[in-house]
Amino acid sequence: MMPAPTYSLKQLCLYFLKLGTWGFGGPVALVGYMNRDLVERKRWITEADYKEGLALAQLAPGPLAAQLGIYLGYIHYGVTGATLTGLAFVLPSFFMVLALGAVYEAYNGIPWMQAVFYGIGASVIGIIAYSAFKLTKKSISKGLWGIYGVAAVYTIWQESESVLIFLSAGILWWLIKRPPVLRAVVPFPLWEIFFYFTKAGAFVFGSGLAIVPFLYGGVVKEYGWLTEQEFVDAVAVAMITPGPVVITVGFIGYLTAGFQGAAVAAFATFFPCYLFTVLPAPYFKKYGKHPGIKAFVDGVTAAAIGTITGAVVVLGKRSLVDGYTVAIALLTAFVCWKYSRVPEPLLILLAALVGILLKVFIL
To answer: So where does this one cross the membrane (predicted)?
Structure first.
């Protein structure tokens, strides 16, 4: 019998509301925050439950951080907890991108965004790198380094994640640890938006890093809803707002068909991942402690953390463009390591100010 939770559903929802409001850095950083806050500091969630949730989020299509948050809500409070934590996590950034979408349309673009993101992007790399270091140090045990390394190298090489890596890692470690015993026996544009973003949510595996190329191929190349520059700006909006990077779909939907387009795009993207998390969750909870399942989850977790580490390199290539940005990233990582209680929003704010100052007075 599962022990009673040491926290209320209200406390958990408030946590995810705050994370959705202040959690910068995209999926890689967000899953690290959840581990640090809910497992290490508050001890509301066990390490085993967190690993199960991370493995399920990696195996199922859809945005990684949102799925993990939904699963963590499910652990003690079932479907109600999964639903409320998912909404609390996603809605703050959804409303932020709506506001930025309105500003974008009113002023024909957001030129100041590049200066802000210049500093923020570098700082976020520092935060993500430290989160990846902590996860690696804590979770990768002897024997799992090979899986971890392959996943990291593949992510750096392909600049995307692959569900086959996670499945192969889980099956391989399961076969090594527990070898099986063989036995003999809506109106026009809204409908298009709905169906397209449902595909994005249901068939694209991995984090926001993986979904961006898919969105580009559809909204720019196939449908022509956005120009190249508008799409780049949409991704930038997602990166400078807290919460899941995939919330860029709300900005894209807004530019395409206003508030209705934003709402339809966000719902169509996140609802499949909600189902892919909630429906298999009871079976993960019931059978997750089985030695064979545990070995599979350990293998998937090693691949997931390797992918996170690889994503640091991929994102760093885009954000660390000169000596200033490298310095910002290194300084941020040092502060995270040396002064762990300094809140990330403060680091992000300072990085944004530094970015603006550098762009205005030096660059």
So the answer is: 12-34, 54-74, 81-103, 115-133, 196-219, 231-255, 261-283, 295-315, 321-339, 346-362
CB atoms within 10 A of CB 325: 22
d(CA 273, CA 13): 19
Distance in angstroms (rounded) separating the CA atoms of residues 333 and 307 = 19
Give helix 291-319 / helix 208-215 axis angle, nearest 10°. Answer: 60
What the block records as the tokens of 120 is: 């923020």
Question: Is the Cβ–Cβ distance between 261 and 189 less than 8 Å?
Answer: yes
236 class by beta-carbon count within 10 Å (0-12 exposed, 13-18 middle, 19+ buried) = buried
The pTM for the full model equals: 0.64
Q: Where are the domains of the chain?
A: 9-184+275-362
Alpha helices in the chain (DSSP H): 9-22, 26-34, 47-59, 64-107, 112-139, 145-158, 163-177, 188-203, 208-215, 228-240, 248-278, 281-287, 291-319, 323-338, 344-357
Cβ(113)–Cβ(251) below 8 Å: no
- Residues of the chain predicted below pLDDT 70: 1-2, 25-26, 61, 108-114, 117, 159-163, 166, 180-188, 203-214, 232, 235-236, 238-240, 242-245, 285, 287-289, 297, 304, 311, 315, 318, 344-345, 363
Instruction: Report which of 238, 191, 184 is spatially closest to residue 216, judged by C-alpha positions.
Output: 238
Q: Evaluate whether 301 touches 170 at the Cβ level (below 8 Å).
A: no
Give, to the nearest 10 degrees, the angle between helix 112-139 and helix 344-357.
140
The tokens for 22 are 């202040």
Here the tokens at position 179 are 């070898």
Q: Which pLDDT belongs to residue 185? A: 42
